[in-house]
């Protein structure tokens, strides 16, 4: 891009790249916009941080959006801004899709299950759908910023939290450890092993003298090795026997003893961590204050008028110049037909399978191409935040190998409050299927029995009330998220991405961020750009 | 402890160990209390989580407390509860000591320096004294809980934040990297090196066949090594070239390339992290919402009536049956004498040195035994949170080797707000002394020049207004915190701990948690137990 264009656009100092692009479009139209984006290696199709910048208008054109989840509402919000008439069809009486938060009064009826009415205290809640926003999900954060949804940190990585593996091989089985003990010791011993091997000269063929010195320096520092003999003998980062404090006693405190290297190795507890977290699980993470559904509500506030609630999609027909969708009002049972210039379908594939459509066989087969993950969660309201008061654990996850539990996650809000609601399990696949076969009461008992092993004398006695979900048993979802096999990604996914006739698909299932709100948002952004292109042609 | 006593005390289920102790005291007096504490390995002198449980009453006795910092107010609060008459002398017009937060209107005059009046926008602030609470500082957290000071997480460890070493040896000099790049690559390569050495059989003398298999498994998992050849070739946790997203483009995203092992080693950037953080720096950390001084204000609300503000201590005399302190009202200039049964002096040693006392020569020499740390901080109000908007960094520290900067810390509050106030430097010792010699304007320029290297085009243009402190130049502090040499700890510290006559010392300097509020609180807890013992005898 020439400096001339640059200065024509700038004038006053631009604030963000996006502002710059908006100005580029104002000054030079979509041609300059696209040139600018290409110069930066951006492309409308890869927009991830902000909705596509679309020129022209959607005035007089109608887009029918199936599903008022985060994806559907994203499309409705952005298309409405462009002038499109949006009609959103939502089977539930509320918007948000999986972006739900259970608090007092929340009702959930699983297929073939009991009806649950949440009776948490006021202020207590559990995000039983999405519950955390990675710092790198710029799309989700775009809307929390635009809609001014207040955020707080979500503690996804608390080294002070426990790990409890009852089936760990060796003497660490059933031992409750702090995660920092495992990290410090495992890394310390491994650093010691490599350092001593280097020092011995055994690797002098592989490593230059200069690199050897640098490596020894690195390893000593990384693993808190003794300067004298390169041994690891523990470090304060694994906790103290007696914490340092005031005066002479405790004074400097009393150091703790490291676990035995052999025991640690045998236990395989080192697998609880990696060099760094995977990108998607990495700190820093955030959450809306008061519950994840604050995002859904913020969308709903803006596009609620376009939503027909309590209305089920019965059939979908792609006609030559329009799309025709038959819907049923669930209150009255009355069917009606809605037509539109285009349709964006955000219905989960697990549900879309059962809708009467005139898609081609190829497309219908592709819809079958993704598995939907059985996923279960349970929120347990505790009358006392014993994990903070007694154990000094402020948020994060307790890791366990207890089958069907996976983790116990401690709330990242209302610190030191009177009560707290923790996540009692987060299970997947076979374990989720198994646990979901239990009655609500049995699920609670299952969660309490497990938690009691890790927090004996605290867990069960603090419990007050629960709320659980098995997403694979929730109507209109039938699974936590789309799970694509390599084969499905290669064959079915591209077919679905192309859409058919006047229908395109969007949602987390149409992304590589399955199970995340960002997948739904970015997918919607992509597809509305394509709809706009089609309808502008 | 017998079950009989147990059941006598319990009745209804006890909630915490502390509740149990309180009941023990109610039922069996201090004898049972002490027996119970000993049974649990606790001791009044080592109380760290809660104030000492003291029996009896302080009615009719007066304790004079010098200094209304966190330590002094802790003592006043707890002693008043016991019935003591507390008189607190404070030189400043406000309480809190170093626990201060700069916001609009805050005035700071350094010795020999200009007068600063903070003109941050409403809602913007910088904690220029203590700024974070480790999860293991149970004493500080005891009061945030008791006083219901709302807390939020403080992001002390953000792998997504930058590291920028302009003096790093080799090609990484002056390269801005994400901390997760350094961690993932450095650990990945080191894991690879050890794994391949193990695999080669070179270490078969040192490591058993079984341990070798376990180690290879651990290393592959820890460092994301290739299952095929144990090589490290990068991992998504070090970030992508193009993040994964929706549809076909970006779809799965584009992986990033690891840095070269040799370059990393040479740069010594691996020193930015350890196996685990030191205990005191470990996640999880917290901060009061709205500024650290919320803790000071919560204390002040409860003990403010006992404080004589704007009053300087002129002299201290230990008499046979009382302590006599001459003070000067700074408004009127009028001197007066206060007597009390006992004195708790929380004045920093750096200041106490200059007070006229009748301490023995030995005690006076001990007072000289601690060095006080030069420490500087600067808060920079930015009109735009570019680190969030442009760089996706939500809190944490930017690490740099730029002399006198040390770190740039990004705020852990008001996420996605319009403006933000970051910590522009945090310097110590010689560097702090050097920077503090600059004028306020020069300090700002120094901080901006450094920040601009790391956030080019963003830092300087976003800057609005600053507030800086050099604690060694602040009257009534003369340093950030006490720094004890090994010799000082061995010789001077025990002398000071014993006190002299009817005077005991408290404060962060009388702890092994120097520079932390917990040190002041726990020190106060210890010394009031001793005062109570002395006055009850």
Largest beta-sheet details of chain A: 5 strands, parallel
Strand content of chain A: 15-25%
Percentage of helical residues of chain A? 25-40%
C-alpha-based Rg of chain A, rounded? 27 Å
Named CATH topology of the largest domain in chain A: Polyamine Oxidase, Chain A, domain 2
- Class based on secondary structure composition and strand pairing of chain A: alpha/beta
Domain module count of chain A: 4
Please give the count of helices of chain A.
16
CATH architecture of the largest domain in chain A: Alpha-Beta Complex
Query: Biggest interface and which pair forms it?
Result: A-B, 112 and 111 residues
Q: How would you sum up the global shape of chain A? A: globular
> How far is the N terminus from the C terminus of chain A?
28 Å
CATH class of the largest domain in chain A: Alpha Beta
Detailed description of the structure:
In chain A, the strands form nine sheets. Chain A has a five-stranded parallel β-sheet. Chain A has a four-stranded mixed β-sheet with strand order 10-9-22-23. Chain A starts with a helix and ends with a helix. The first copy, chain A, folds into four domains: 3-42, no CATH class; 62-93 and 309-369 and 484-536, FAD/NAD(P)-binding domain, CATH 3.50.50.60; 101-157 and 282-292 and 374-473, Polyamine Oxidase, Chain A, domain 2, CATH 3.90.660.10; 179-276, Up-down Bundle (de novo design (two linked rop proteins)), CATH 1.20.1440.240. In chain A, helix 3 packs parallel to helix 16. The first copy, chain A, contains 16 helices and 27 strands. The longest helix of chain A is centred in the N-terminal third of the chain and has 23 residues, at 17-39. With 537 residues, the first copy, chain A, is α/β, with parallel strands linked by helices.
């Amino acid at each position: 891009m020439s400096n001339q264009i640059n200065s024509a656009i700038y004038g006053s100092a631009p604030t963000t790249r996006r502002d710059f692009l908006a100005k580029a479009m104002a000054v030079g139209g979509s041609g300059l916009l696209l040139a600018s984006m290409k110069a930066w290696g951006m492309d409308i199709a890869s927009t991830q941080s902000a909705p596509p910048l679309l020129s022209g208008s959607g005035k007089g054109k109608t887009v029918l959006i199936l599903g008022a989840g985060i994806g559907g509402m994203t499309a409705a919000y952005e298309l409405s801004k462009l002038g499109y008439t949006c009609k959103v069809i939502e089977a539930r009486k509320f918007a948000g899709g999986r972006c739900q938060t259970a608090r007092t009064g929340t009702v959930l009826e699983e297929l073939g299950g009991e009806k649950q009415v949440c009776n948490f205290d006021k202020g207590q809640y559990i995000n039983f759908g999405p519950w955390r926003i990675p710092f790198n999900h710029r799309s989700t954060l775009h809307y929390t910023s635009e809609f001014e949804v207040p955020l707080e940190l979500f503690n996804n990585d608390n080294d002070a939290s426990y790990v409890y593996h009852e089936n760990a091989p060796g003497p660490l089985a059933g031992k409750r450890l702090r995660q920092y003990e495992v990290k410090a010791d495992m890394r310390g011993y491994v650093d010691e092993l490599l350092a001593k091997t280097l020092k011995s000269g055994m690797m002098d063929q592989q490593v230059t003298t200069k690199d050897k010195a640098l490596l020894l320096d690195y390893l000593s520092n990384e693993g808190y090795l003794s300067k004298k003999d390169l041994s690891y003998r523990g470090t304060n980062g694994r906790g103290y026997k007696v914490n340092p404090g005031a005066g002479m006693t405790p004074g400097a405190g009393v150091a703790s003893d490291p676990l035995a290297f052999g025991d640690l190795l045998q236990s395989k507890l080192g697998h609880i961590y990696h060099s760094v977290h995977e990108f998607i699980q990495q700190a820093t993470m955030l959450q809306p204050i008061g519950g994840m559904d604050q995002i859904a509500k913020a969308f709903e506030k803006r596009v609620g008028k376009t939503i027909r609630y309590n209305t089920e999609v019965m059939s979908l027909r792609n006609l030559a110049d329009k799309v025709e969708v038959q819907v049923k009002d669930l209150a009255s049972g009355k069917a009606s037909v809605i037509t539109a210039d285009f349709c964006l379908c955000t219905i989960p594939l697990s549900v879309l399978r059962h809708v009467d459509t005139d898609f081609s066989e190829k497309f219908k087969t592709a819809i079958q191409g993704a598995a939907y993950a059985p996923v279960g969660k349970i929120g347990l309201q505790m009358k006392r935040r014993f994990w903070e008061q007694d154990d000094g654990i402020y948020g994060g996850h307790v890791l366990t190998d207890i089958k069907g539990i996976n983790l116990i996650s401690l709330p990242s809000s209302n610190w030191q409050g009177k009560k707290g609601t923790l996540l009692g399990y987060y299970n997947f696949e076979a374990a989720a299927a198994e646990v979901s076969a239990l009655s609500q009461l049995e699920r609670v008992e299952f969660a309490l029995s497990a938690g009691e092993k890790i927090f004996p004398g605290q867990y069960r006695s603090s419990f007050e009330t629960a709320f659980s979900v098995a997403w694979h048993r929730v109507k209109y979802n039938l699974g936590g998220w789309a799970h694509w096999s390599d084969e499905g990604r290669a064959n079915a996914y591209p077919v679905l991405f192309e859409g058919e006739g006047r229908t395109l698909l969007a949602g987390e299932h149409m992304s590589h961020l399955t199970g995340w709100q960002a997948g739904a948002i970015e997918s919607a952004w992509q597809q509305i750009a394509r709809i706009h292109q089609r309808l502008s042609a």
